[in-house]
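Hi U.,

Before I forget, here's the chain from the pilot set. I'm dumping it here mostly so it's searchable later in email.
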Amino acid sequence: PPPPPPGFGAKGVVPNKLLHWKKIPAQNLRESVWASEKTVAADAISEHSTELVKLFFEDPAEERKRKKAAMKASSSKDKKKAVQLLDIKRANNIAITLSRFKSSNAEIKSAILTLDEGLLSLEQLQMLLTLLPTSDEIRMLKSYKGEVEKLGPSEQFLHTMAKIPKVEARVQGFIFKQEFNARKNELKDRVTLVASAAKRVIESVKFKGILEITLALGNFMNSGHQLGNAQGFSIESVLMLSGIRSGSNKKITLMHYLAALTASKEPSLLDFSHDLRDCRDAANIPREALSMELNQLQQCCDELRDTLSDLTQPKQDKKEHDSSTNTFLQIMTHFHKTASAELGEVTAKMEVLDQRFKALAKYFGEDPKSFKPNDFFKNVAVFCDEFEKSLEEIRKYQKEGSAGLEGLPMI
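Structure:
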């Protein structure tokens, strides 16, 4: 067998942990795999015994020294226990969130002051906003007279943030700057889409032709009744066509008849829905939502203006007007000017949209005051779907030679 490690025993090295294997009884060794002489293994172990000792053995005396040192360090750490001013839940929330930043308190402070978008992303800024010290916490930190280094990590973070003049307003302005272009462009695109949908409906000659055929068909159905001889009808009325079924064939509706009649007499009108393709999306964009978003952007812009005004007041402490504050003022003043101008352009587009809505209501004989553009666009989109569905079904029925189609125009 290989020799034991040098110094093995009570006064020498001992294994970190014994290998508690199950030994084969001597009477069972004969003719087993263990019966032959193990020269290869013995040589290998002897050759690497020094490395094995370094890896898996230890000196009891040295181990005792390490434990003693660890206990002393632990005792010293307990004596230097951090001062906690926050309640445990608040402190833990701050610590957990800060662990996602991978930046020091000083780096976060610098990024806020210099608007460093490379260090603070929009998502991080939104998280940071929830961590900023409250007025009560600022008073608590000011009343603390001890060394800052003795404060807990969360308290030190709040202490650093509290040193930034108007820190909450700065972070809110920083967030506004980072998200402005995306929000402004989305709002502008939505306004443009709805305005385009209104314009397309008014200018669609094919849709006008479909409505004329529908009016004639409806007046024929209502002949001899006070509902007959109509000069026009509200757009939601077109959806009623799918609910009027043939007495002789219940699967045929007045919408089927309109589709077949149009295909037979005015086939050039059949793709009228192409002119109205924006109506479905426009139906999902309430005018109120557009106004709300524009107002929110304008409010953020006004708040940024107030922040810039406060930071440039002579009453501000001279210490606050360091290079980082000047950097913030320079960048944000330029941004505010640009954002204000671009919001002015969006406001002008909103005014154009309102004029389009009034024109749309007037064109379809509706009262502009009670006209609901979303309902209008939804009704138009549903009518397009019902018409196309009915047209396909009629083509299928006639191709299959289904019974009960007598009287329907042939396509």
